[in-house]
Amino acid sequence: MLRAALTSGGGRGRHLPALLPHHRLLSGSSIAALFSQPSPPADPSAAIQSAGVDLSHADTIPALLLDPDLAGNYPAASRFFSWAASLPASAAALNSKSFNSMLQLAAANGDADRFWSLVASMRSKGYGISKPAFRAASESFRAKDMARDADLLQEAYAAHARNAAAAEVCKVLRAQDKDESSKLTMLSELGVEVTDELVALVMEKVGQLPRQAMVFFRWVEQLAGAGISWGKVYNAMARALGREDCIEEFREVLRKMRGKGLQMDRDVYVTVTHRFLKRKMVEDAVDLFRFMTGRPEKLSTEDFVFLLKKVVLTGDLDLKLVTRVVRYYRNAGNEVKASAFDAVLKSLRSVGRLGASGRVLRAMEEGGFAPDCADHKKAVLAMCNAANLEEAHKYLANVEESGYKLGPKIWSCLVQKYSLGENVDKAVSCFHEMFERSDNEDMGSALEVLVSGLYKKKGAKEAFKVLKNLVSEKAVVPWQTTYKYLIHKLIRQGYQKEAFEVLSLMKSNGFPPFIDPCIAQISKSGTVDDALGLLNAMSSKAFPSRTVYVHLFQALFKEGRHEVAQQLLSQSPASIQNHADVCDIFDRMKLEEPAAAALADG
Fold first, then answer.
1. How far apart are CA 64 and CA 93, in angstroms?
2. What's the pLDDT score for residue 438?
3. What SS3 state is found at 308?
4. 403: alpha, beta or left, given left = phi > 0 and alpha = psi -120 to 50?
5. Which of 46, 126, 281, 438 could form a disulfide with 276 if both were Cys (CB 3.0 to 4.6 A apart)?
6. Residues sharing a CB contact under 8 Å with residue 23, sequence separation 6 or more, in sequence order
């Protein structure tokens, strides 16, 4: 019965004979009858095949959709098309003509949802809207007061036309067997209008192929009319050609832009700059920065600092490029702030180049940066931290000779670094220079590290000589801890006389003498002369230090050196011999001796 329905169709079968070269004819009315119900038959393909209709033929489905009987029954036509779309490609040929035929039916019946769904499907398959379908659908939309859909269709059709034109251009550009001259001729013969949209579409496809892009741009320059936006064209050119393998072409683009008074978009600048820096093309990045500073709109501080940091990070440090970046930025009317140098220091630290801090600051200064004392201090400290002491020393001296006063703390840091290094003699020399420049201010910290360094490298006696000279001849006042440290080291190395002299110096600077190490050493192994040396250092002839005598006698008795104590007493002034505390010590000793002897005999 189904077969009968398919093969019957009255006189309507005459619509298709010229279109469908099949054994049997299948009319639009038969298809309409087959798909008139919301749910199609279980197996329409079997019925259609038994009727001898070949849906895989390219013209079959378009012809069926245009048949008045099926076209007049839109629901059936829509179901038929959906069913055909669900079949394998080998079973039903849904080509561009098929979609365009269905588009006309959807528009004619005001089915906007189905229409745009079809357009999306066509776009995904690479199909475009044909001119007959566009005209028919536009008329249908306008007639049904569907102005919005008509306008959208106009845009979609124009976009397809542009895409088609761009595809033709790209096909010529990609021709492997053609030289540049031939490609230019072929492009001209296409008859394509050069527009901003065409440039954008082509660049999406060949932007990563600079040689093809260059041919395209030369063609654009030859044929583009007055309506084209040259700013967009040249920015697209710059984005595509800003790379190592066509740098000369890129520079040519910049020259043309400058000649035409065109500005580079910031996003293009950022893209190309990052590309240059990634490929270590630092000088080209700096040249591009110079080009950008010519714009009326100023570059941001972030752009300036970013490039400056990259210059000091990438490859070999080129100080001339540092100067150029700062100069270009300054010449564009910008102020270079101290924060820029701070950022540069962080970058230098990150790659172990702090030792070049002074040279970088000088290069920035040559470009127009005006560093203050704080900036110079940062540079010196950075070089000290990097152990670039000779350069730091020279830089510090030159800066102060030019009128800046960086202060004793900076000199102190340099002395300390020298003291901790191998060249302790340089530390001594630097300390003297520090003293001359700093008026004896804040010497203590540097001197303590200097004494420690001298002791470690040359021994306690050499450290004593330097300290004695500075205190006696330069009136330098060491810290109390420095005196104590040196006394300990001198006693440990057997330099008692020098230790006693340090006690005198300590006393002259108003510190309480640090006698404990001296008394401990004398009480254990010292002689009477050693004891007298300590007492002479601590007492004046008129006023002997009774306290020191008492401590010394007590220590000698504690160590059991009674004979040495008696000899010392016999050589002491009468005021000491008759002092009550001293007499009490020796009286107790006389009482303790018999008891000790009795214990020994027992």
1. 12
2. 72
3. helix
4. left
5. 281
6. 52
What pLDDT score was predicted for residue 14? Answer: 38
Buried b (16+ CB within 10 A) or exposed e, 338-365: eebbebbbebbeeeebbbbbbbbbbbbb
Range of the domain at 520: 515-602
Q: For residues 331 and 290, give the distance between their C-alpha atoms in angstroms, rounded to a whole number.
A: 10
Pair of tokens at residue 536: 């002479």
Q: How far apart are CA 446 and CA 90, in angstroms?
A: 92
> Quick one: which of 476, 465, 394, 395 has its CA closest to 436?
476
Closest CA to 261 of 291, 237, 236, 298: 291
Predicted TM-score (pTM) above 0.70: no
- Is residue 225 assigned to a domain? no
Residue whose structure tokens are 């019965």? 1
280-308 burial code (b ≥16 CB/10 A, e <16): ebbebbbbbbbbbbeeeeebebebbbbbb
- Please compute Rg for the chain using Cα positions: 50
Domain presence at residue 588:
yes
- pLDDT for 316 equals 86
446 is a domain residue: no
Residues of the chain below pLDDT 70: 1-28, 40-42, 50-52, 90-91, 159, 161, 224-227, 439-441, 540-544, 591-602
DSSP character string of 345-369:
HHHHHHTT-GGGHHHHHHHHHHTT-
CA distance 283 to 236: 22
pLDDT for the residue 440: 63
Residue 598 lies in a domain: yes
pLDDT the model gives residue 227: 66
The torsion region of residue 54 among left (phi > 0), alpha (psi -120 to 50) and beta comes to beta
pLDDT at 541: 54
- Our count of domains for the chain comes to 1
